[in-house]
Amino acid sequence: RSTQAQSIFRVSPHMTTRSLSSCSRSRSCRGLHANGWLRTQGARRRLCASASRANAPPSYPMTFLSNCEAITRLAGNQNGTDLDDATKQIIQKQIEQVEACCERGNAVANVPIDDGTYELVYSSSTNTSAGKLGPFVGEVLQVFPSPDDEEVRALAEQANSKSDKPVNVERTYRNIVNLFGGLLTVSLDAVLTVRDAETIDVYFVQTTFSLNRGAIPVTRQPFDPLRGGYWKCSVNESGWRVLTANTGNVFVLKKV
């Protein structure tokens, strides 16, 4: 081995990406070729191209799940309630990428909405629906159907009997906010009606404050008459759900 080749070989493990990407123009790399270190065409091609591949932007679109994972990372551990506007705009772009992977206008029709428990990953809201109560932020779960399904239906029908605009009671769900590790729980029971392939009408029945993750009820506050709104469901697949409320707030949830 020549002195030049030995010297180059010692340095080459520390060569930067930039120096490798300009391999064809590099005097040092030509020295390696000349001295047989990269004699085979395949080895030479792999080393000379490795840096440009490493620095190049991905030539493929992000997949559905990778976009969902990106939203999770950006949202942090407070459901997005502490994010600045710039970060929320980035997340909104990620949500649009997730929606682009799905068949729009058929989310509710393809997958039942009453199929288990979902955890809130991100919301553009900053109120209780996003788990925020005063300065505190808790874990948010949506449970389909409500654990007290029969009671919730009965309360809804009772409110209907007094209303000149009764609502259709198809399904029930419970929105749960666990604060301080579940020491305090605020739950909201509601009834749902599927209006069309992507729209769900929501009518709130009662709010319950309890201790020890709901094990010890403290007080209940029924809604009479029922208060309502709606969700637009744009994503409902692979355990992920994206809902936009009539208020404009967006909710990204993952099945647990």
Secondary structure topology:
Blueprint: H1 3-11, H2 17-21, H3 27-34, H4 41-55, H5 64-75, H6 85-100, H7 107-110, E1 116-123, E2 132-133, E3 136-137, E4 139-144, H8 149-161, E5 171-179, E6 184-194, E7 199-211, E8 216-237, E9 240-245, E10 250-255
Antiparallel strand pairs: 1-4, 1-10, 2-3, 4-5, 5-6, 6-7, 7-8, 8-9, 9-10
Describe the structure.
The protein has 256 residues and is of the alpha+beta class. The protein contains 8 helices and 10 strands. It has helices at residues 3-11, 17-21, 27-34, 41-55, 64-75, 85-100, 107-110, 149-161; strands spanning 116-123, 132-133, 136-137, 139-144, 171-179, 184-194, 199-211, 216-237, 240-245, 250-255. An 8-stranded antiparallel barrel has the order 1-4-5-6-7-8-9-10. A two-stranded antiparallel sheet has the order 2-3. β2 and β3 (136-137) form a beta hairpin. The longest helix is centred in the middle third of the chain and has 16 residues, at 85-100. Mean pLDDT is 80; it is low at 1-61.
**Poorly predicted residue ranges:** 1-61
Q: What is the H-and-E element order?
A: HHHHHHHEEEEHEEEEEE
Biggest sheet details = 8 strands, antiparallel, barrel
If you average the pLDDT, what whole number results?
Answer: 80
Strand content: 25-35%
Q: Identify the overall geometry.
A: globular
* Number of DSSP-assigned strands: 10
